[in-house]
Design goal:
Elements (H helix, E strand, L loop, with lengths): L18 H6 L14 E7 L5 E7 L1 H5 L3 E6 L21 E2 L5 E7 L2 H10 L1 E6 L25 E4 L2 H7 L2 E9 L11 E7 L2 E6 L4 H11 L7 E4 L15 H13 L3 E4 L2 H7 L6 E9 L5 E13 L12 H4 L4 E11 L12 H19 L3 H7 L17 H12 L12 E2 L2 E13 L6 E6 L5 E4 L9 H13 L6 E4 L16 H21 L11 E6 L13 E13 L5 E11 L6 H20 L31 E5 L23 H13 L10 H11 L2
Parallel strand pairs: 1-12, 10-11, 14-15, 19-20, 23-24
Antiparallel strand pairs: 1-5, 2-4, 2-6, 3-5, 7-15, 8-13, 9-10, 9-12, 13-14, 16-17, 17-22, 18-19, 18-21, 22-23
Length: about 700
């Protein structure tokens, strides 16, 4: 029976339940499922940037030992047209961008499949292509609403007031294409048996994958099971079904045997999404005391011609600082490029880099401390909607971060601290991310032996979802967390939304909490009675509540502080310290939360210093396509990184009082580092990443 006197399981630093299985190799990922008779597939990417396939010669490939079949638009099954056009693979002869899949080789071994793919000869009729993003591109347009974010929002007379404001900042910032690069590449193992499809997929949402495959293969959902039990990271790139799962299911149907497809890392850059590059112009008009009177943020980004995706980088500007006059605009340019998609904190990460860098420039121009400038522009209501914030403890984050960082000892003068050729500086930036939740279902069951099981098709992408959901359940049931098991990662479980948008725990936990609350009520009515052998259960469906409109603006907030050393001989930037302080509702697990914050901050460091891709204008593809050329930060790049949070009680969120934490850590980190580089050197760089060549070139240009 529940123990109502027990201390809540929420907030405790419980260890991840799947940890031992992962470190011992017992955890099985999608590519590690090998059914009897399993075949292997290897895709053939297009080698032109735009055009039509005129011929495919698979004779040499089929003659190779072990090759079973070669699929192309000439012989692949016809699929129902998907809502996401990136999944319409091998359906026609059109090539929308370099790297688009034009064939698939299936063989008895992985080696034979790879050799067969190299032997397929494809002829094309090439067409002129355009892969270059410019702010004044003739095809740029303002999109319609994207995921609730409008293409343009105007408040007052932003342009007129800006021109007459006592203080001005008018600056351009560039963020290059960025890639998610999870450690586990995208993979799927598909198997048809008696008209039923089973797929092991590396995905952030098995329910969505099942529903998409059901539509494309014209099957009832009940005849498809998608299992995503363990997922080795995604950062948005596994948030929706990707071509590999469709190809695996297609090949398994054609060959009549299980088929495994694990995408080569060099192909990930073109087929699983990327962060769209952004060109951002930020104009800030302010009074002499730093009070903002006009905010203008204009963003240009690219999208593919396959499907529209908008990097809503100005969305956070609509949340952060009050100003009676504001204009935020998104413009997208359709190009012959791979389709961009979600990458950790889409929109907010590049957008807050620009806004928080501009705020630092304004602080320098006015001679106001950067922390103080932000405090002077704090607000209790969301600027665009005028809704009150359900909670906004940004000021507390700034003050607590400044205290922990030792900000008061900072000499505001650039180049005021030197250690030989190394100039040392510090910077600050704010962070925000919306509180999101989607309807979810869950079940809870009590067994006669005193154990409990909660079931929900959540996806644990390395965040510790199993552990936190067990804590949510234990809290609602009033029992020790050790007595609760959480089953996740299969579309046969109660339907649940994907792990994305920092909304997973809020969405799944809401349903788990409701199911367990109902179960606790049932158990309370059976006091003193023996449970039946089959136990007692309860279910919940949060449709209509989790997605209900709120009279409050709900966001998490945070503050980042960075200390850097810039070697003026080599141009190398080294981050010596990173500190993040967050206001993210109730922290449900101190251990996993700190891990999420720190991981995102490290990713923000990569965004600032090492990560970038280049679109090759001549060939139309990304020049950096593996981890040898696309540089992600490693342990040695982050000597000291700390994450803390302020206690925040917010009754307007969900039953747990939690806000998402997976993405806010990357938001603002790059700006804090860039601002620190300016403080160290006196040079302002406005294009990421801050590589040695750019540092030295800027320093030479600034030299008298």
């Amino acid at each position: 029976m529940p123990d109502t006197t027990r201390v809540s399981a929420l907030g405790a630093p419980a260890e991840r339940r799947e940890g031992p299985a992962k470190v011992t190799g017992a955890a099985r990922y999608a590519a590690e499922r090998t059914p009897d008779g399993c075949a292997y597939a290897w895709p053939v990417p297009a080698t032109v940037a735009r055009g039509e396939i005129t011929a495919i010669d698979d004779t040499a490939a089929l003659a190779l030992p072990g090759v079973i079949d070669v699929l192309s638009h000439l012989n692949a099954p016809r699929l129902v047209e998907p809502e996401d056009a990136t999944l319409a693979v091998l359906q026609d002869a059109h090539v929308p961008h370099r790297g688009w899949y034009v064939a698939l080789v299936v063989a008895k071994t992985l080696e034979a499949a790879r050799e067969g793919a190299a032997a397929v000869e494809v002829s094309y009729a090439e067409e002129p292509h355009d892969v270059t993003l410019t702010a004044d591109h003739a095809d740029a347009y303002v999109p319609e609403d994207t995921d609730g974010t409008s293409g343009e929002h105007v408040r007052g007379d932003a342009d007129g007031v800006f021109s007459s404001a006592p203080a001005h900042v008018d600056v351009l910032y560039r963020v290059p294409p960025l890639h998610n690069h999870p450690m586990e590449p995208h993979a799927a193992t598909a198997h048809w048996e008696d008209g039923r499809l089973t797929v092991y997929d590396s995905s952030q949402g098995a329910t969505t994958v099942r529903d998409t495959l059901a539509d494309m293969f014209a099957l009832p959902k009940e005849r498809i099971t998608v299992i995503s039990e363990h997922v080795g990271g995604g950062f948005g790139s596994k948030g929706t079904p990707r071509p590999h799962v469709v190809l695996a299911a297609m090949a398994a149907r054609v060959t009549g045997r299980p088929v495994k497809l694990s995408l080569p890392r060099r192909q990930l850059a073109t087929v699983v999404g990327h962060r769209s590059p952004t060109l951002q112009r930020v104009r800030l008009g302010a009074q002499p005391d730093g009070t903002l009177v006009s905010v203008i943020h204009e963003v240009a980004s690219h999208t593919s011609r396959v499907k529209e995706f908008v990097e809503t980088a100005a969305a956070a500007t609509r949340v952060m600082y009050p100003s009676p006059h504001a204009r935020t605009t998104h413009r997208v340019v359709p190009l012959d490029v791979p389709s961009p998609s979600w990458m950790r904190a889409p929109g907010e990460a590049p957008g807050m880099y620009a806004l928080e860098s501009a705020m630092d420039e304004l602080a320098v121009r006015l001679g106001i401390d950067p922390v103080e400038l932000r405090l002077r522009n704090d607000t209790r209501t969301e600027p665009d909607s005028s809704k009150p914030f359900s909670s906004r403890h940004l000021a507390e984050c700034l003050r607590e971060g400044a205290r922990r960082f030792g900000w008061s000892a900072r000499d505001p003068r650039p180049r005021s601290r030197a250690e030989g050729p190394v100039l040392v500086g510090s910077g600050v930036a704010c962070a925000t991310y919306p509180v999101l939740a989607s309807p979810s279902r869950a079940s809870a069951h009590a067994h006669p032996d005193g154990s409990f099981v909660v079931r929900v098709n959540a996806t644990d992408i390395g965040t510790g979802a199993r552990t936190v959901l067990a804590q949510v359940a234990a809290d609602a049931l009033g029992v020790p967390v050790e007595r609760v098991r959480a089953d996740v990662g299969s579309s046969d479980l109660p339907n649940a939304p994907l792990a994305g948008g920092s909304s997973g725990t809020a969405s799944w936990g809401w349903a788990v909490h409701e199911a367990c609350t109902r179960l606790a009520e049932r158990l309370a009515g059976q006091q003193g009675q023996q449970l039946p052998p089959e136990g007692v259960g309860a279910t919940a469906d949060t449709a209509g509540t989790a997605d209900a409109d709120s009279e409050y603006a709900r966001h998490a907030f945070g503050a980042h502080f960075a200390e850097v050393g810039v070697d003026m001989v080599t141009g190398e930037v080294r981050v010596r310290r990173l500190l993040g302080v967050y206001a993210a509702g109730r922290i449900l697990n101190a251990r996993t939360a700190r891990s999420q914050f720190i991981g995102a901050m490290a990713m923000g460091l990569g965004m600032a210093l090492t990560e970038h891709s280049t679109v090759d204008e001549a060939f139309g593809d990304f020049a950096e396509s593996d981890l040898a050329s696309y540089h992600v930060p490693v342990h040695a790049d982050v000597p000291a990184i700390e994450a803390h949070w302020v206690d925040e009680e917010d009754p307007h969120l969900n039953p747990m009082g939690s806000k998402g934490i997976g993405e806010i850590g990357i938001v603002g980190t790059a700006a804090a580092i860039g601002n620190a580089v300016h403080h160290a050197t006196g040079v302002r760089l406005r294009e990421l990443p801050l590589t040695p060549d750019r540092v030295l070139a800027a320093a030479e240009g600034a030299a008298p």
